[in-house]
Amino acid sequence: MDTVPISSSVRSAFDEDGYVVLRGVLDAATVEALRDAASCVFDQVVGATLAQQMAHPRLTWWRLPDGRAYVFKVKPVADLAPAFGDVARGQTLPAIASALLGAEVELMEDKVTYKEALNPDVPWANLPVLGEEVRKHSDATYFAARGFSGVLTVAVCLDDCPAEAGALRVWPGTHRRHVEYVQTADQGPIVPDESAPDDEAVTLTAEAGTVLAWDAALVHASEANLTGKPRRLLVLGYTTVDH
Predict the structure, then answer these.
(1) What are the residues whose beta carbons fall under 8 Å from the beta carbon of 179, sequence distance 6 or more?
(2) Are 219 and 179 in contact (CB under 8 A)?
(3) pLDDT digits (tens, 9 = 90+) for 204-242
Protein backbone atom coordinates (compact mmCIF):
# COMPACT_ATOMS: atom_id res chain seq x y z
CA MET A 1 0.00 0.00 0.00
CA ASP A 2 1.25 3.44 -0.87
CA THR A 3 0.76 6.41 1.41
CA VAL A 4 -2.22 8.46 0.24
CA PRO A 5 -1.40 12.17 0.01
CA ILE A 6 -3.87 14.47 1.74
CA SER A 7 -4.22 17.70 -0.24
CA SER A 8 -4.93 21.07 1.33
CA SER A 9 -8.45 20.99 -0.16
CA VAL A 10 -9.18 17.61 1.44
CA ARG A 11 -7.84 18.85 4.77
CA SER A 12 -9.98 22.00 4.50
CA ALA A 13 -13.06 19.92 3.72
CA PHE A 14 -12.35 17.74 6.74
CA ASP A 15 -11.95 20.77 9.00
CA GLU A 16 -15.22 22.24 7.72
CA ASP A 17 -17.42 19.14 7.46
CA GLY A 18 -15.78 16.78 9.92
CA TYR A 19 -15.36 13.86 7.50
CA VAL A 20 -13.75 12.79 4.23
CA VAL A 21 -14.30 9.87 1.84
CA LEU A 22 -11.10 8.48 0.31
CA ARG A 23 -11.84 6.00 -2.47
CA GLY A 24 -9.55 3.26 -3.71
CA VAL A 25 -7.11 3.55 -0.83
CA LEU A 26 -6.57 -0.18 -0.41
CA ASP A 27 -5.83 -2.58 -3.24
CA ALA A 28 -7.96 -5.63 -3.95
CA ALA A 29 -5.48 -8.09 -2.41
CA THR A 30 -5.37 -6.18 0.87
CA VAL A 31 -9.15 -5.91 1.02
CA GLU A 32 -9.50 -9.64 0.38
CA ALA A 33 -7.03 -10.40 3.18
CA LEU A 34 -9.03 -8.18 5.53
CA ARG A 35 -12.27 -9.91 4.53
CA ASP A 36 -10.73 -13.29 5.29
CA ALA A 37 -9.53 -11.97 8.64
CA ALA A 38 -13.00 -10.64 9.46
CA SER A 39 -14.54 -14.03 8.69
CA CYS A 40 -11.97 -15.84 10.84
CA VAL A 41 -12.49 -13.50 13.78
CA PHE A 42 -16.26 -13.86 13.49
CA ASP A 43 -15.99 -17.64 13.48
CA GLN A 44 -13.60 -17.58 16.43
CA VAL A 45 -15.52 -15.18 18.68
CA VAL A 46 -19.10 -16.07 17.76
CA GLY A 47 -18.22 -19.75 17.53
CA ALA A 48 -16.81 -19.71 21.06
CA THR A 49 -19.89 -17.88 22.30
CA LEU A 50 -22.30 -20.41 20.83
CA ALA A 51 -20.24 -23.44 21.84
CA GLN A 52 -19.80 -22.33 25.45
CA GLN A 53 -23.19 -20.60 25.74
CA MET A 54 -21.40 -17.65 27.23
CA ALA A 55 -20.87 -14.27 25.58
CA HIS A 56 -17.29 -13.64 24.52
CA PRO A 57 -15.83 -10.52 26.21
CA ARG A 58 -14.99 -9.02 22.82
CA LEU A 59 -18.53 -9.41 21.46
CA THR A 60 -21.23 -6.74 21.34
CA TRP A 61 -24.59 -8.24 20.42
CA TRP A 62 -28.28 -7.93 21.14
CA ARG A 63 -31.59 -9.48 20.18
CA LEU A 64 -33.73 -8.18 17.31
CA PRO A 65 -37.49 -7.76 17.74
CA ASP A 66 -38.00 -10.96 15.70
CA GLY A 67 -35.99 -12.93 18.28
CA ARG A 68 -32.75 -13.44 16.37
CA ALA A 69 -29.42 -12.63 17.98
CA TYR A 70 -27.61 -9.81 16.19
CA VAL A 71 -23.84 -9.42 16.09
CA PHE A 72 -22.92 -5.75 15.96
CA LYS A 73 -19.17 -5.73 16.58
CA VAL A 74 -16.10 -7.52 17.85
CA LYS A 75 -13.50 -5.45 19.70
CA PRO A 76 -10.51 -5.50 19.76
CA VAL A 77 -9.40 -7.47 16.70
CA ALA A 78 -5.87 -6.41 15.74
CA ASP A 79 -4.32 -9.06 17.99
CA LEU A 80 -6.55 -11.80 16.58
CA ALA A 81 -5.58 -11.46 12.91
CA PRO A 82 -2.23 -10.20 11.55
CA ALA A 83 -3.94 -8.57 8.56
CA PHE A 84 -5.75 -6.13 10.86
CA GLY A 85 -2.62 -5.18 12.76
CA ASP A 86 -0.61 -4.77 9.56
CA VAL A 87 -3.12 -2.28 8.15
CA ALA A 88 -3.85 -0.46 11.41
CA ARG A 89 -0.18 0.09 12.22
CA GLY A 90 1.18 0.26 8.68
CA GLN A 91 2.09 3.39 6.76
CA THR A 92 -1.08 4.37 4.93
CA LEU A 93 -3.81 4.72 7.53
CA PRO A 94 -1.69 6.31 10.29
CA ALA A 95 -0.35 8.76 7.69
CA ILE A 96 -3.91 9.71 6.70
CA ALA A 97 -4.86 10.18 10.35
CA SER A 98 -1.76 12.24 11.07
CA ALA A 99 -2.37 14.49 8.06
CA LEU A 100 -6.01 15.12 9.01
CA LEU A 101 -5.31 15.73 12.71
CA GLY A 102 -2.14 17.70 12.04
CA ALA A 103 -0.11 15.76 14.59
CA GLU A 104 1.63 12.48 15.21
CA VAL A 105 -0.90 9.76 16.03
CA GLU A 106 -1.14 6.39 17.70
CA LEU A 107 -3.71 3.63 17.47
CA MET A 108 -6.06 3.58 20.47
CA GLU A 109 -8.97 1.40 19.31
CA ASP A 110 -9.71 -1.31 16.75
CA LYS A 111 -12.87 -3.27 15.96
CA VAL A 112 -14.92 -4.80 13.18
CA THR A 113 -18.61 -3.96 12.86
CA TYR A 114 -20.53 -6.85 11.32
CA LYS A 115 -24.25 -6.00 11.54
CA GLU A 116 -25.17 -9.64 11.04
CA ALA A 117 -28.12 -11.61 12.42
CA LEU A 118 -27.53 -15.18 13.55
CA ASN A 119 -29.65 -18.11 12.45
CA PRO A 120 -28.96 -20.36 15.46
CA ASP A 121 -31.45 -19.85 18.27
CA VAL A 122 -29.80 -18.61 21.49
CA PRO A 123 -32.55 -18.76 24.12
CA TRP A 124 -29.94 -18.95 26.89
CA ALA A 125 -28.61 -15.45 26.11
CA ASN A 126 -30.06 -12.61 28.20
CA LEU A 127 -29.88 -9.84 25.61
CA PRO A 128 -31.55 -6.43 25.28
CA VAL A 129 -34.03 -6.16 22.42
CA LEU A 130 -33.01 -3.45 19.96
CA GLY A 131 -33.31 -2.66 16.27
CA GLU A 132 -30.59 -3.01 13.66
CA GLU A 133 -30.05 0.70 13.27
CA VAL A 134 -27.34 2.61 15.13
CA ARG A 135 -28.89 5.77 16.52
CA LYS A 136 -27.43 9.26 16.21
CA HIS A 137 -24.41 9.74 18.44
CA SER A 138 -20.80 10.85 18.51
CA ASP A 139 -17.88 8.79 19.71
CA ALA A 140 -16.20 11.73 21.44
CA THR A 141 -18.44 11.30 24.48
CA TYR A 142 -17.12 7.76 25.00
CA PHE A 143 -13.50 8.67 24.30
CA ALA A 144 -13.55 11.68 26.64
CA ALA A 145 -14.68 9.41 29.46
CA ARG A 146 -11.56 7.32 28.81
CA GLY A 147 -9.29 10.37 28.81
CA PHE A 148 -8.85 10.71 25.05
CA SER A 149 -9.25 13.88 23.01
CA GLY A 150 -8.21 14.67 19.43
CA VAL A 151 -9.50 11.35 18.07
CA LEU A 152 -10.05 10.46 14.42
CA THR A 153 -12.11 7.44 13.42
CA VAL A 154 -10.93 5.66 10.28
CA ALA A 155 -13.22 2.99 8.80
CA VAL A 156 -12.14 0.65 6.01
CA CYS A 157 -15.03 -0.69 3.93
CA LEU A 158 -14.44 -4.42 3.63
CA ASP A 159 -17.54 -4.82 1.46
CA ASP A 160 -19.46 -2.56 -0.90
CA CYS A 161 -21.65 -0.25 1.13
CA PRO A 162 -24.64 1.15 -0.77
CA ALA A 163 -27.33 3.10 1.07
CA GLU A 164 -29.53 0.02 1.49
CA ALA A 165 -26.69 -1.81 3.28
CA GLY A 166 -26.88 0.62 6.18
CA ALA A 167 -24.19 3.00 4.97
CA LEU A 168 -22.80 5.52 7.41
CA ARG A 169 -24.84 8.74 7.76
CA VAL A 170 -23.11 11.88 9.01
CA TRP A 171 -24.19 15.38 9.98
CA PRO A 172 -21.61 17.78 8.51
CA GLY A 173 -20.27 20.44 10.83
CA THR A 174 -21.67 18.97 14.04
CA HIS A 175 -18.11 18.39 15.28
CA ARG A 176 -17.71 22.17 15.52
CA ARG A 177 -20.75 23.01 17.67
CA HIS A 178 -22.42 21.99 20.89
CA VAL A 179 -24.76 19.03 20.50
CA GLU A 180 -27.24 17.84 23.09
CA TYR A 181 -27.39 14.24 24.24
CA VAL A 182 -30.06 12.07 25.82
CA GLN A 183 -29.07 9.08 27.95
CA THR A 184 -30.57 5.69 27.03
CA ALA A 185 -30.67 2.43 28.94
CA ASP A 186 -28.96 0.20 26.38
CA GLN A 187 -27.35 2.47 23.75
CA GLY A 188 -25.57 5.09 25.79
CA PRO A 189 -25.96 8.81 25.05
CA ILE A 190 -27.74 9.54 21.75
CA VAL A 191 -28.40 12.77 19.88
CA PRO A 192 -32.06 13.85 19.64
CA ASP A 193 -33.53 14.60 16.21
CA GLU A 194 -33.84 18.32 16.92
CA SER A 195 -30.06 18.56 17.33
CA ALA A 196 -29.39 16.59 14.12
CA PRO A 197 -32.37 16.76 11.74
CA ASP A 198 -32.63 13.94 9.22
CA ASP A 199 -32.74 16.32 6.28
CA GLU A 200 -29.24 17.57 7.15
CA ALA A 201 -27.64 14.11 6.96
CA VAL A 202 -25.26 12.91 4.24
CA THR A 203 -25.12 9.18 3.42
CA LEU A 204 -21.61 7.95 2.68
CA THR A 205 -22.08 5.24 0.07
CA ALA A 206 -18.80 3.52 -0.73
CA GLU A 207 -17.16 0.62 -2.49
CA ALA A 208 -14.94 -1.98 -0.85
CA GLY A 209 -11.48 -0.53 -0.22
CA THR A 210 -12.81 2.96 0.47
CA VAL A 211 -11.62 4.68 3.64
CA LEU A 212 -14.04 6.86 5.59
CA ALA A 213 -12.51 9.19 8.14
CA TRP A 214 -14.37 11.41 10.57
CA ASP A 215 -13.76 13.54 13.63
CA ALA A 216 -14.87 11.60 16.71
CA ALA A 217 -17.10 14.53 17.68
CA LEU A 218 -19.10 14.29 14.44
CA VAL A 219 -22.69 13.08 14.83
CA HIS A 220 -23.25 9.90 12.82
CA ALA A 221 -25.62 6.94 12.57
CA SER A 222 -26.54 4.05 10.30
CA GLU A 223 -29.65 2.16 9.27
CA ALA A 224 -30.29 -1.58 8.97
CA ASN A 225 -28.53 -3.64 6.31
CA LEU A 226 -31.33 -4.69 3.95
CA THR A 227 -29.21 -6.27 1.22
CA GLY A 228 -28.72 -9.75 2.66
CA LYS A 229 -25.00 -9.33 1.95
CA PRO A 230 -22.14 -8.57 4.37
CA ARG A 231 -21.47 -4.92 5.25
CA ARG A 232 -18.36 -5.07 7.37
CA LEU A 233 -16.17 -2.20 8.46
CA LEU A 234 -12.73 -2.32 10.05
CA VAL A 235 -13.01 0.66 12.38
CA LEU A 236 -9.84 2.18 13.84
CA GLY A 237 -9.44 5.02 16.30
CA TYR A 238 -6.34 7.18 16.13
CA THR A 239 -5.47 9.79 18.74
CA THR A 240 -2.77 12.44 18.87
CA VAL A 241 0.31 11.28 20.74
CA ASP A 242 -0.01 14.21 23.16
CA HIS A 243 -3.73 13.58 23.84
Answers:
(1) 138, 191, 195, 196, 219
(2) yes
(3) 999 999 999 999 999 999 999 999 999 999 999 999 998
